[in-house]
Amino acid sequence: MTDERKLFGTDGIRGEANVPPMTPEMVVRLGRAIAMVARRESGNAPRVVVGKDTRLSGYMLETALAAGICAMGGRVMLCGPMPTPAVANLTQSMRADAGVVISASHNPYYDNGIKIFGPDGFKLPDERELEIERLLSDDKALSSVGHTGARVGRAERIDDATGRYIVYAKSTFPKELTLGGLRIVVDAAHGAAYKVAPLVFGELGADVTALGVSPNGRNINKAAGALHPEGVIREVGKRKAHLGIALDGDADRLIVVDETGAVVDGDAVMALCASRMIADDKLQKNTLVTTVMSNMGLDHALQRAGGRLERTAVGDRYVVECMRSKGYCFGGEQSGHLIFLDHATTGDGVVAALQVLAILAREQKPLSELKQLFQPVPQLLESIRLPARRPLEQMARLQGEIRAAEGSLGDSGRVLVRWSGTEPKLRVMVEGPDEAALRTFVEQMTAAAREDLGVPA
């Protein structure tokens, strides 16, 4: 990530709604900046697709964003509550100049955020986000290009946005297969996929039980969805379902639950899908791309299948950038962001679930059996909230504990310490064969970090 960026994190701009920087005043300016950059690229009045999740503050920020874009002569195409990947897909298919999603993904309802896509449906690169951020602080630039009279822009609704996404999502499922006979539980987290997700699976023939499909503006992600799969687990047992699917608030990632009620995380799903793609000669260069957070067991699973793993910094944007620059077609994150570049330009929970369901339908085996090819190495992850950030290399006590842990683990484990890209938290992750030793390492590193920052134990 470019160090100069202050507003943009690993997944756009995010914060508490109506508190700086996530205020309508800032979002009006952001709309102006997006329109200016898009016009510079296209040479014409920019066309911008805007979607959102189901948060109460989405109405406020959607209106502000549209006002800023229209003030610069842009045309806004509003599609209402839609999954993040649906907005990316619509931006590309409608030949728009940009796409914007108003969502804070898995965060509580009182937060909100902004994600921006280019005309190709991919998230903007760091350099373009930095350009927009610089414009936001340039009053002269933002006010110098006024549009009056007939040059003022307009906003309109895309009435068939839901239907367009459903058709697209279903097209990623093999035409020779059906979901007939499969019982599926889907939890949309009262979020952006509350309409589309049950329809996609139902129209392909599945018997669908839908949870988290009653948004009220304040219940997104609340005791539901990918962060809280307990409801899916209970319903899978009650319905004797073959699979449970838990999406997050903007539906760009998923957590899968097998027929026994066990959670199957992103690493296990990637191992399953990648191994089948290798067998079918569909995994480009036999390489799966993931982040430094994925378990070492994923390396082992890919090696057994005849493939290899390539790791990136944390953030699905960096996974995608690696895939595009090196010609790979599948990647993702342990958290459930899964990107199938042959089908989508960003993580898509519904499309990823369809790829898993295709394997179940084709092989006629339960997921509890199929997932066994992935055997995780013991891993501990601790996130501690601290009052201030300091470059890790300047935290001497922490660096000493990191070196000690790495020396003890050798080739049998890994240590990863990083600042969160979206929250004021330090994340400490350790992998290795001895869980008791891992706990000691984590405790020593978190205590050292607090000492470095002068925080009482």
Topology, element by element:
Elements (H helix, E strand, L loop, with lengths): L12 E4 L7 H19 L4 E6 L5 H14 L3 E7 L2 H10 L4 E5 L8 E7 L8 H11 L2 H5 L10 E4 L3 H11 L11 E5 L8 H8 L3 E5 L18 H10 L3 E5 L6 E4 L5 E2 L1 H14 L7 E5 L4 H10 L2 E5 L3 H11 L3 E3 L5 E3 L8 H15 L3 H4 L8 E7 L10 H14 L4 E6 L5 E7 L3 H18 L5
Parallel strand pairs: 2-3, 2-4, 3-6, 7-8, 7-9, 12-13, 12-14
Antiparallel strand pairs: 1-5, 4-5, 9-10, 10-11, 14-15, 16-18, 17-18
Helix pairs in contact: 1-2, 1-4, 6-7, 9-10, 14-15
Description:
The chain has 457 residues and is of the alpha/beta class. It has 15 helices and 18 strands. The chain has a six-stranded mixed β-sheet with strand order 1-5-4-2-3-6, sandwiched between helices. α1 crosses α2 and α1 packs across α4. The longest helix has 19 residues.
Q: Helix fraction? A: 25-40%
Return the average pLDDT rounded to an integer.
95
User: What is the total tally of β strands?
Assistant: 18
Kindly report how far apart the N and C termini lie.
Answer: 31 Å
Structural class: alpha/beta
Radius of gyration: 22 Å
List descriptors.
18 strands; 6-stranded mixed beta sheet; 457 residues; alpha/beta
Summarize the structure.
The chain contains 15 helices and 18 strands.
